[in-house]
């Protein structure tokens, strides 16, 4: 057991740090506005030109073939530099791992390089009006057509869909509950997109209405009827380290410690020091998880432990920032971060569902 | 970087677990004997001195197992503090499992001092064995004082007459022993979680196992999360306790381990209900041990004050 970065890892960190110090944009408008969306895509294209947008992917798809540990180093540096949130995150962190595992060589070659350059931005389409935490209750369906499928139904709370060009989600091709679901990729051109304003007033969500939208067979991901299993692979990425790397929480905790220390109140500083300790705990835990993944271990249900931990830590940190700043928080990244942190215990499976998963599938308590 | 335990490190822990299984007595004499034959007490002692030559980090799974078993006796004071502070014939005896050490805190309180051959009271050390002592006029006085855990009695220690100065670094040994106690707390918390899950699967009310109720599930999930994220802080502190960030890391680890273990104890008692509040079950041994160890080598309040004071002083990441 050690915590020693190799010389190669150290020089990678130095390269990333120095490039980001020079190129990180000061402030971009919200990625859930038309201008902000375009500005974020341009920034990510810039990252891609340096092969820094998806460092852990193989070189043929635009990455550097970096290890998970190096990816974590990249993330630490990215967030420490104050770089923008990733507009491509649903694609690169959720869809891409699924494409690597279940996609055909053609699908990977078609979609991954475009995703790495932010040519395509992907929206996720899991939830429906009647299927949120109980995702298996979904009723959207796909009907066999010549050379493909026609999609029908309604998806909602679809992140990034207001401005994105593509989506991915589950549709019923047969059966009930978890059986007979199929994982589809689809362009949003023929889908009716109804943007939904979030708490911050921006259009981070959309409702997607499908009225016989045609998708070719080449956009079915994995086997027909196997969608649940494939989607669970994605959601465990979403809950685990690929969506929320420790770097972002470390950066927040570090700024919070400075904010609290400047306020001179030992009670508030104590809360900040606890948050910092917890962010460190998540970082260290992730180093262990990354090594297990590199050694071929599946993380599975254990990713739910982390999802509860990081989402509630993020909320505690931003709640403390609100206590420290009061209404001076308005108009600063702390308030935007506070609103965003409130979503953490909801998305990627509510924390109530995550605690059920921990209890039933990690601890072995009865269903 | 590989922040996971090697097979050797994990296996040593499993051997200790097997050896301690079903081996309970009031003050741990049988367990001590069995661990002694494994070389456990000399695990941090150089192999040239008859020890196993392990680093503290190598020994964590084994230390955690002594916590899982709530093993009585001055395990950490001997195998960690004593191993880093003593030398000469005393160290040889310690490595052979034939010498026990008790360490007094800043209030001159030492646990299990009645079992100890050597008493450390910073910055001095004294042997209780008047015959073999090089200071025959030495007198050690032990006065029993109230403690939380009947199997871990406390004593006020007074060292009179000639005593020796400690040879090793007191600060380093204190930090290492703090990390080791934190590892024991993680082990005790894992035991509490495992036995409480087992109880919740068996105990039925309203016609079903109580572990099927979400209120119970979520409480136990919270314990699992607290233990899962306290443990890496303990592992890190075992690697960094001698570095400039060591003081901060050790305090962060002990506070997190204290809190996770106390959460586990509280949930264990609540889920067991009334029977947990009695002497009918063995649960009480782990409850009092968790409360007692949370105070040993510093309460959460003490350690959190240290983290607070140091959080801006040392680099936060590379």
Automatic annotation (TrEMBL), chain A:
GO terms for cellular component: plasma membrane. It comes from the Bacteria. InterPro entries: Acyl-CoA_Oxase/DH_mid-dom, Acyl-CoA_Oxase/DH_mid-dom_sf, AcylCo_DH-like_C, AcylCo_DH/oxidase_C, AcylCoA_DH/ox_N, AcylCoA_DH/ox_N_sf, AcylCoA_DH/oxidase_NM_dom_sf, Mycobact_Acyl-CoA_DH. Residues 123-210 form the Acyl-CoA oxidase/dehydrogenase middle domain. It comes from Nonomuraea soli. GO terms for molecular function: flavin adenine dinucleotide binding; oxidoreductase activity, acting on the CH-CH group of donors. Residues 6-118 form the Acyl-CoA dehydrogenase/oxidase N-terminal domain. Keywords: FAD, Flavoprotein, Oxidoreductase. PANTHER family: ACYL-COA DEHYDROGENASE, ACYL-COA DEHYDROGENASE FADE29. Its cofactor is FAD. SUPFAM superfamilies: Acyl-CoA dehydrogenase C-terminal domain-like, Acyl-CoA dehydrogenase NM domain-like. Gene3D superfamilies: Acyl-CoA dehydrogenase/oxidase, N-terminal domain, Butyryl-CoA Dehydrogenase, subunit A, domain 2, Butyryl-CoA Dehydrogenase, subunit A, domain 3. Residues 225-363 form the Acyl-CoA dehydrogenase/oxidase C-terminal domain. Belongs to the acyl-CoA dehydrogenase family. This is Alkylation response protein AidB-like acyl-CoA dehydrogenase.
TrEMBL record, chain B:
This is Alkylation response protein AidB-like acyl-CoA dehydrogenase. Residues 179-307 form the Acyl-CoA dehydrogenase/oxidase C-terminal domain. Keywords: FAD, Flavoprotein, Oxidoreductase. Belongs to the acyl-CoA dehydrogenase family. Pfam families: Acyl-CoA_dh_1, Acyl-CoA_dh_N. InterPro entries: AcylCo_DH-like_C, AcylCo_DH/oxidase_C, AcylCoA_DH/ox_N, AcylCoA_DH/ox_N_sf, AcylCoA_DH/oxidase_NM_dom_sf. GO terms for molecular function: acyl-CoA dehydrogenase activity; flavin adenine dinucleotide binding. It comes from Nonomuraea soli. Its cofactor is FAD. Residues 29-81 form the Acyl-CoA dehydrogenase/oxidase N-terminal domain. Signal peptide: none annotated.
């Amino acid at each position: 057991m050690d915590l020693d970065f190799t010389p190669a890892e150290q020089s990678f960190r130095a390269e990333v740090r120095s490039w980001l110090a020079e190129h990180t944009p000061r402030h971009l408008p919200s990625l859930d506005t038309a201008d902000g969306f375009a500005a974020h895509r341009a920034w990510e294209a810039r990252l891609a030109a340096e092969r820094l947008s998806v460092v852990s992917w193989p070189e043929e798809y635009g990455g550097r073939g970096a290890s998970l540990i190096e990816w974590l180093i990249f993330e630490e540096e990215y967030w420490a530099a104050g770089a923008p949130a990733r507009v491509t995150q649903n694609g690169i962190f959720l869809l891409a791992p699924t494409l690597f595992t279940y996609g055909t060589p053609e699908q990977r070659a078609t979609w991954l390089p475009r995703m790495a350059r932010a040519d395509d931005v992907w929206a996720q389409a899991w939830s429906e009006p009647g299927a949120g935490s109980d995702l298996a209750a979904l009723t959207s369906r796909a009907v066999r057509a010549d050379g493909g499928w026609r999609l029908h139904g309604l998806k909602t709370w679809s992140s990034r869909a207001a401005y994105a060009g593509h989506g991915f989600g589950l549709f019923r091709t047969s059966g009930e509950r978890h059986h007979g679901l199929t994982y589809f990729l689809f362009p949003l051109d023929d889908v009716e997109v109804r943007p939904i304003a979030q708490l911050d007033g921006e259009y981070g969500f959309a409702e997607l209405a499908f009225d016989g939208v045609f998708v070719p067979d080449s956009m079915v991901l994995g086997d027909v009827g196997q969608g649940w299993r494939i989607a669970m692979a994605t959601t465990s990425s979403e809950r685990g380290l690929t969506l929320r790397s420790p770097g972002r929480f470390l950066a927040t905790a570090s700024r919070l410690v400075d904010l609290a220390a400047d306020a001179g109140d030992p009670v508030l500083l104590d809360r900040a020091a606890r948050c910092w300790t917890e962010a460190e705990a998540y970082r260290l835990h992730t180093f262990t998880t990354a090594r297990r993944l590199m050694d071929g271990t599946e993380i599975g249900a254990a990713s739910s432990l982390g999802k509860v931990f990081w989402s509630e830590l993020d909320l505690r940190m931003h709640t403390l920032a609100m206590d420290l700043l009061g209404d001076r928080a308005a108009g600063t990244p702390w308030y935007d971060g506070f609103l965003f942190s409130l979503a953490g215990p909801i998305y990627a499976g509510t924390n109530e569902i995550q605690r059920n998963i921990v209890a039933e599938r990690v601890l072995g308590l009865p269903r | 970087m590989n922040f996971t335990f090697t097979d050797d490190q994990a296996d040593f822990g499993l051997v200790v677990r097997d050896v301690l299984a079903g081996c309970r007595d009031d003050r741990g004499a049988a367990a001590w004997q069995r661990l002694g034959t494994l070389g456990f007490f000399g695990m941090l002692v150089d192999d040239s001195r008859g020890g196993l030559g392990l680093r503290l980090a190598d020994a964590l799974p084994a230390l955690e197992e002594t916590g899982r078993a709530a093993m009585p006796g001055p395990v950490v004071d001997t195998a960690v503090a004593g191993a880093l502070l003593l030398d000469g014939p005393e160290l040889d005896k310690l490595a052979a499992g034939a010498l026990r050490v008790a360490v007094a805190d800043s209030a001159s309180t030492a646990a299990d001092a009645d079992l100890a051959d050597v008493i450390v009271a910073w910055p001095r050390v004294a042997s209780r064995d008047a015959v073999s002592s090089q200071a025959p006029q030495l007198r050690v006085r032990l006065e029993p004082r109230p403690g939380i855990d009947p199997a871990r009695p406390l004593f006020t220690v007074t060292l009179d007459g000639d005593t020796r100065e400690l040879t090793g670094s007191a600060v380093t040994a204190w930090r290492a022993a703090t990390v080791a106690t934190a590892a024991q707390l993680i082990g005790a918390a894992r035991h509490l979680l495992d036995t409480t899950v087992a109880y919740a699967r068996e105990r039925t009310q309203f016609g079903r196992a109580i572990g099927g109720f979400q209120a119970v599930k979520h409480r136990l999930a919270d314990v699992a999360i607290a233990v899962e994220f306290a443990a890496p802080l303990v592992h890190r502190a075992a690697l960094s306790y001698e570095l400039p960030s060591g003081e901060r890391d050790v305090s962060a680890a002990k506070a997190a381990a204290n809190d996770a273990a106390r959460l586990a104890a509280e949930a264990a008692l609540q889920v067991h209900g009334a029977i947990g509040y009695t002497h009918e079950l063995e649960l009480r041994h782990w409850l009092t041990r968790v409360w007692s160890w949370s105070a040993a080598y510093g309460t959460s309040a003490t350690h959190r004050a240290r983290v607070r004071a140091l959080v801006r002083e040392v680099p936060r990441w590379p």
